[in-house]
């Protein structure tokens, strides 16, 4: 029986790249996303489940769709979205939605699957953000939630290591994905100034194929140079 991996936000960007790496390592991958029909990638062992992580009631619904759920050995908490603005411009609904997707849902998923992961001596990956470390203009809500996710992962590492469950926090810097679609900045054209989703996925592969007896609890991945540009909007 093949091992099963769950990846949130699996239909594009970093989540899709991680899913493809896991498939290459012979995992059956169940991806969770809002709109599975928009994903153009297909593989016989890649199964996209519809789930809105801003609604906690959907979590048991999509978990119940996974056959052989007791074979889950990897959980990748990756899903997220960005919204940067002065704090007074956030609506209460937007703050609640971001909190649910970026912090509460990873906690709920981890809570739901930890007993299985203990039995299988599995792994939990958290995809963090450089925003959770550094100060960014108008990044108040997003950065605070990512910092909270970082701390949750760090505390979980110590809690679960005695059960041989390995917890890994991967913190990417600027990565060229759809993340910047709604922002007024974007990665520079210089290919040395941004990461690609495949590079983050290769970090996951490195961790999974690393020597037994050691764990990488946290890794920060940064591009070679720092450059970013403001988008030009037509007047």
UniProtKB/TrEMBL annotation:
**So which residues are the signal peptide here?**
none
What is the superkingdom listed in this entry's lineage?
Answer: Bacteria
Instruction: List, alphabetically, the CDD domains matched.
Output: SDR_c (cd05233)
Q: Which InterPro entries match?
A: NAD(P)-bd_dom_sf, SDR, SDR_fam
Query: Pfam families of this UniProt entry?
Result: adh_short (PF00106)
Query: To which protein family does this belong?
Result: Belongs to the short-chain dehydrogenases/reductases (SDR) family.
The protein depicted here goes by the name: SDR family oxidoreductase
Organism in which the protein naturally occurs? Leptospira bouyouniensis
């Amino acid at each position: 029986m093949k091992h099963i991996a769950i990846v949130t936000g699996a239909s594009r960007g970093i989540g899709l790249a991680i899913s493809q790496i896991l498939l290459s390592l012979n995992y059956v991958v169940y991806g969770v996303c809002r709109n599975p029909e928009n994903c153009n990638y297909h593989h016989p062992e890649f199964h996209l489940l519809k789930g809105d992580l801003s609604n906690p009631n959907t979590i048991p619904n999509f978990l119940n769709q996974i056959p052989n759920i007791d074979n889950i050995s990897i959980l990748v908490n990756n899903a997220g979205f960005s919204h940067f603005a002065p704090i007074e411009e956030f609506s209460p609904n937007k703050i609640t939605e971001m909190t649910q997707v970026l912090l509460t849902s990873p906690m709920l998923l981890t809570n739901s699957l930890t007993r299985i992961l203990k039995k299988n001596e599995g792994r939990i990956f958290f995809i963090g953000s450089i925003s959770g470390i550094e100060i960014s203009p108008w990044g108040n809500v997003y950065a605070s939630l990512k910092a909270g996710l970082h701390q949750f992962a760090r505390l979980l590492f110590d809690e679960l290591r005695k059960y041989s469950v390995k917890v890994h926090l991967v913190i990417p810097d600027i990565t060229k994905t759809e993340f910047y679609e709604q922002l007024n900045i974007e990665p520079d054209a210089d290919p040395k100034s941004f990461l690609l989703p495949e590079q983050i996925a290769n970090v996951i592969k490195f961790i999974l194929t690393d020597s037994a007896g050691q764990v990488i609890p946290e890794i920060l991945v940064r591009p070679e140079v720092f450059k970013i540009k403001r988008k030009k909007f037509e007047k």
